[in-house]
Design goal:
It comes from Gordonibacter faecis. This is DUF2974 domain-containing protein. The protein is α/β, with parallel strands linked by helices. 40% of the residues lie in helices and 14% in strands. The protein contains 14 helices and ten strands. Helix 10 (291-304) packs across helix 14.
Length: 391
Amino acid sequence: MNLLEYLGTEFASFDEKPFNPVDSAALSQFCMVRAEGIVPALRERKSFLDLGIIVENLLSPTSRAVHFVDALRTELFADMFTGLAPEQVKQNLFALAASPRFRTMAVRDYLSLFDTERQTQFAAMTFVYKKEFAYIGFRGTDTSFTGWRENFNMVYDAPVPAQEQAVRYLEAVAPRLPKRLFVGGHSKGGNLALYAALRAKPEVQSRIERVFTHDGPGFKAGMVTDAEYAAIRDRVHKTVPQDSVVGMLMDSPADLDLKVVHSSDKGVQQHSVFTWDVEGDDFVYVHGLTDSARFTDAVITQWLARFSDEEAAVVVDALFRAFEASGARDATEVLSGGTKSIALLGEAAKNLDEGARDVLVNALGSLAETAAREATQGLVQRFTPKPKASA
């Protein structure tokens, strides 16, 4: 099965079958729904007063409790679904609204922050099952250049604004929720969920039963200490597909239990949880990452190690200036275009000033050199005879 088929066939309540990683993945995708005017807004304003921006949904009137069915408003569908798989996000909404397992869940405390100047894209909402437990879900990256710029900023800046907001949000909603808490998200949402759990106050952190990060990237080197990880390590459930790229970016503790999921698709398309195989009430796991994923991880890790934080900031700025110069309407036109994207950026680079163009060309050149060197080393290791064991 896949995620949507699971939602269409799993009829047991949470009283009968406990909350599981597939449930988390489904709710993480509802977090990709733009729910302004549908899901009741977060009423806690105190924690967000120092943002320096107007958060419209914090000022919206309190409304009744809502369920997934309340989001079935076709007049809003044109702008409701975001992310790299908006059609699947839409189907996920239908499935949740129809599912006897999910349809009685209350959805509340919606918060969405978007600030181009501060390069911030953040959204979260909370799902409550009776008085038994709550799932705090964080949105992954939308299709805006602002959202993707914040992702790239994580390489050299720590913490980025969305990570700080994630901690604020978790601590703001927790006092009014059932004692048992689950926290999770997909992609950037997984990173935010883990960061919030790591940095939450002890009285909140102790209530978290599980942190689900579905192909979520790690953190800037040195950002999280071993002691901080130790406090929740056994409660972290990190899943990545076998060709993972996003989930392997940046640092995670070496002893973190990484669960590799089998995907029915290939390459970067495996980033979508809708391609992940499901059996029973869990994902289908395999023994390890593919050679391609390990190669990509090694290349990117070595390449990023070449730059200081200051140099990385310059490279990211040049890259996004090229994105803007390309004329692309959103990030999907650049990031999902394969060789077309390379050609698009190549043409866009011609419109940059000489300094930015040189930075971008040099950075991409060093990436190519790193990839070639890593490939050569891999071939040498493959064809070098292993020494015979002594008698």
